[in-house]
Each structure stands twice: as structure tokens, then as C-alpha cells.
Amino acid sequence: MNIEESMTSSADSPSRHPSIALLDELIRRPSVTPDDAGCQQVLAERLEKIGFTCEPMPFGDVTNLWARRGSSGPVLCFAGHTDVVPPGALEEWHTDPFEPVSRDCSASTTLSVPSRAGPSSSLVTSIARLPW
To answer: Which residue positions in the chain have pLDDT lower than 70?
Structure first.
């Protein structure tokens, strides 16, 4: 199954690509600043399963996540965010902004991906595949 087919398979399908499944889970969380709606906890749980130590880093009203594997260098730092600005009037949206939508996957991959979810889901599922 290719990534496009995985995107259109049901959310509970065992053939669903892990990056797409995690992406869907993150998008479904209404993580409007400063509340990340549990996105960082989801990422921390995934990372801890593959040997990372995770700790919250509060800064004012928001909390960041620091995840580290091992205790020596080199260090790879991924700086991103899991919150978004308020979506505004929901009636002005074509679809629910916190519901993943895939369109025309056979022609092109046009999944609406906020920067909070796409890079995070790809990074976490890719790291899980590394030969630690």
C-alpha cells in the first residue's frame, strides 16, 4: 500500500501508515494557544516507547517538550509547535479545522496539514524506524 492509499484507508486500519495515523490524531486535537490539547503528551508517549526521556519546559502560558535519547552528543534539535491560532468562525470553514481531510489522493496528496502536526508526525514515526 502506498502513502496515498494509506491516507484514504479507515483510521483504524492496520495498513494505515503510522505517520498518517499520528497526523490524524494530532490534527483532531483542538490545540489553540496556549492549550496544546494533549498533543505534546501524545508525542512524548511515542518517543518514550523508543527510549527517549521527555520533560516539559514551561515558558509563560505555553509548555514545550524536550525529548532526549542518550546523554552525549551529537544533539539533534527539532523546534516546532503543537498549538495553532484560533480558527475563527467555524461556519466559514469548508470542513471542521480539527478534522483531518484528504482530497484526491490518487492524483495528488492534498491533505491539509498545519505546521504543528505534519512535521511532528513525520519526525516521530521516522525516528521510531531508526536502528537504535
So the answer is: 1-15, 103-118, 132
pTM: 0.72
List the domain boundaries for the chain. 3-70+95-127
The domain 3-70+95-127: what is its CATH number? 3.40.630.10
The answer to whether 37 touches 29, Cβ cutoff 8 Å, is yes
98 to 108, 113, 121, 126, 132: CA distances (angstroms): 21, 10, 16, 24, 34
- H/E stretch holding 58 reads strand 53-59
The span from the CA of 112 to the CA of 78, in Å, is: 21
What pLDDT was estimated at residue 95? 82
Cβ atoms of residues 10 and 16 within 8 Å: yes
Compute the Cα dihedral for 40, 45, 49, 53 and give only its sign.
positive
